[in-house]
Amino acid sequence: MNKVQILLFCGGSLLLSFGAALLLYPHATIAPQTLEFAKTPQPMENLPDINLGPNYGSLPVTELVGYYIDHPPAPATGGTARHEQQFGGC
Description:
Number of helices: 3
Low-confidence stretches: none
Largest sheet: 2 strands, antiparallel
Number of domains: 2
Helix content: 40-55%
Strand order of the largest sheet: 1-2
Strand content: under 5%
Number of strands: 2
């Protein structure tokens, strides 16, 4: 391949990518009203019930929060500290 072909391929690829981004960007955006609503904290009474599966059914968020407050998770005690494996790197 010569330099002209390489430049044409790179330029065409950039133009095609930019054109695809221009066409798809409107479908990837969120309406400003929806974004503002998502940023505003909602009271837990307004949240819908959460389905916990066939064993427990649907429960309101207030009941789940109350259960968590009454029965906090037990702190990890004893044993050796577990080393978290990190992916990548040397």
